[in-house]
Write a structure and sequence with these properties.
alpha/beta
């Protein structure tokens, strides 16, 4: 049975906010809403109840599926935290620029953090390091908790050396997904790039995500049938936003195929288009 604690916590936070108070250790929400904006592939911007902005896997400028108005990194607004699930360019390419532009911490797999510093891609003070299985609060003064979890994929960093102008491939750490617990207890699971693995059931039982950002395109990641199985049998979230599809010809999975494979379910699916947002 799903724990009612997050629901009770949200209710308590709302009641206290109406009285001008806040739960201990919790920043009072401005309007209690969570805004999730999908920008193509895995790129996602989250606005939290207190107005913090978290950007995940930002591949925007060269992403063919990102709407034109979002290819300007300034359009993201003031970014408070950047999360990267692995080193592949379609998840990492714009992350260093966004972190440096906003003086924001960038969180990535531990091995990728070391490579970013060693190669001079980001300054050491912006590379916030922790590891899988642990929770951290990388936004100073905020109770937002971020947990790294396993992902079944790979993670090489291909980089153009500014001195030699040649492309090099470096170790990029182990790929991860992120559980993000916001100020009001709402939990978002960004799966990054992954296939099916048995511990997804444990992740579902342990973290009980409210919303899952789930890859469905196939070929490199979960396809519609696999994503439906993970939704129905392992994670059982309240909401799903399908991601990581329609970027290149080999990723043929669609939200319609995913919803058909899922069938009747208590999970509400939001098949948004690139550049569309959902509020929770």
């Amino acid at each position: 049975m799903r724990s009612r604690f997050p629901t009770l916590l949200r209710a308590a936070a709302v009641a206290l906010a109406c009285a001008g108070l806040a739960l201990p250790g919790m920043v009072r929400a401005q309007d209690g809403k969570v805004e999730v904006l999908w920008l193509g592939q895995s790129a996602t911007r989250i606005k939290t109840p207190t107005g913090k902005v978290i950007v995940i896997d930002p591949w925007l400028i060269n992403n063919p599926s990102t709407p034109k108005e979002w290819k300007d990194l300034d359009a993201l607004g003031k970014v408070d935290l950047v999360l990267v699930t692995h080193a592949h360019g379609d998840h990492f390419e714009d992350a260093p620029a966004i972190a440096k532009k906003n003086n924001a911490k960038i969180v990535a797999p531990a091995g990728l953090q070391s490579q970013m510093i060693s190669l001079g891609i980001v300054p050491a003070e912006l590379a916030y390091r922790f590891n899988k299985g642990t929770a951290a609060t990388p936004i100073a003064g905020s109770p937002i908790r971020v947990t790294q979890v396993h992902a079944e994929h790979d993670s090489e960093l291909t980089w153009t050396n500014p001195d030699t102008k040649k492309r090099e491939t470096h170790f990029g750490g182990e790929p991860v997904g992120y559980i993000i617990e916001l100020e009001n207890g709402f939990k978002i699971y960004h799966m990054g790039d992954t296939g099916v693995f048995g511990d997804l059931k444990l992740i579902g039982e342990l973290h009980k995500p409210d919303l899952v950002l789930m890859p469905i395109g196939g070929h490199f990641v979960l396809g519609p049938k696999e994503a439906a199985l993970v939704t129905r049998e392992y994670l059982k979230p309240r909401f799903v936003i399908p991601i990581h599809y329609a970027t290149n010809p080999v990723m043929t999975g669609t939200p319609a195929q995913y919803q058909e494979a899922l069938g009747a379910s208590s999970t509400k699916v939001y098949p948004v288009r690139q550049g569309e947002k959902v509020e929770f």
